[in-house]
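Can you give me the bound-state structure? Components:
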Amino acid sequence: MAAPVPKEADASKASKASNSNENITVRPDSPLSNGINPTPSKVSTTSMVGLARIITRETEKLETYLNESRIPMPGFDVDAPANFPKLPNEMKKAREEIVRANQLLTDLVTGPMEHLRWMAWDVRLPPLTIIKATTHGFKTTTTLSLSTQSTTIKLVPQPLRNEASTDSPKLNPSSQAPQPPSLISPPRLASTNPTPAVSFATQ
Amino acid sequence: MTNHIFSEPFPGIVAHTAASRLLAENCALSSWVGLNVEDIWPPAVKVISALKAYPDANEPTQTGFCVANGTVDKEPMFVTLGKDVERAKRMAEGMVSLTGGEGYEVSYLFDSYPWEELDARAGTVVDVGGSHGFVCVDLAKRYPNLKFVVQDLPKTIASAPKLEGKLKDRIIFQAHDFHTRQPVEGADIYLFRWIFHNQSDKYTLNMLRQLIPALKKGARVVINDHCLPEPGTESAWDEKIIRSMDLVMLTLLNAKEREVGEFEKLFREASEEFRFLGVTRPEGCRMSTVVAEWVAEDFGGVFEGQG
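Here's the bound-state model for the whole set.
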């Protein structure tokens, strides 16, 4: 890959260099309107591609290190390592930078409105792997909160799903539209929660 | 500030960001956030207690919401919120903010059912739990021969804005509680939009059975709601939203979103005489349209209404 990294593509430096006031709206009643010249927030002038390059660069750094040190790659298979081993400072920084740039890029492409809307449900991209990590750690048997919602579903073992689908009902073809077979879905997945009601056992 | 809500351009000076500005200026979004943070989060952490105490999870008075609000076995969420003007208003605005968004437009309903055919024979649609009839107004504007009955609770019907001109003659409002026997006999379609996901299986079954004495042969039940996709078949983004909605329904009402198989099972359990026709979902739409047809002779005959 060895992506060219023009001038380190450091987005935060770039934004400081191109200061302008156009991104901040100051209300007449705001203290900011009183002689203080606000600096625009970094976020609004950060380049998305710049962030993507940071992610690529730092991820390459980290993966090369893990390979050379014969450290297993991170994963979420059931027997994957639970944590990173103790890393040298540079690699710690690489990890932090990947997470930071990744999150910021996510927030930017989500946009303020949807960022706020789904933060209330903790529905954020890219969600699945990060959330899965949480469930592996806590098993999700004790608390069901909005922040761990879809996680229980992800923990249902594959064989259970296949068994369940064998008694799936067949659909009569609808008169108005062809029904792709994928519409025949298995019964609601059981969650790992011990209480049966989550799977809505029928009366 | 780490979530981009407010920033600190200088030490001690707090400034708006685009996100905090939205909270200050956009009432619908601010209601949505307030509704979630104050009326949904506290109940969410009580869901496990509620499920342990009432594992059937069928009663809207035995929810996490009821545990959190001290209303177990006393009243369902809508009654509790209804007693507090501010909370009720926030709930209404918050839901509008969600369902008024992309993927929930009424226009998708046009593509989800062969309305033209029904329009050609000047059919009748009963919009059960249709609120102020805004779905019927949209359908009526597009299909000039359709007739409509909008049913909801007396309070809702009483507050519906008066319609003008021709629409007034084609859209009738009627007070009706869908847990009781359906008063409009012989309509072509009984439409339920955003209704089934508010009800547990126990109550949805009753809703369907209360229809039976009114159904003529060939009458259709059309449900417009989320339909849970098979895991992993949806974009990660949409799947999280739809499944999150499922858990919110559990938290607030012991209700749920359903998979295709669950819808089919409901109809089968309500009566062997419902023929399940399947589910459609237009591209870009988060909601699905579930259709079943009454295949027995007119007005069932055998059902003894409980209402």
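A couple of observations. Residues 121-155 of chain A form one domain. Helices of chain A lie at 11-17, 42-45, 48-68, 89-110, 112-119, 128-138, 151-154, 158-165.
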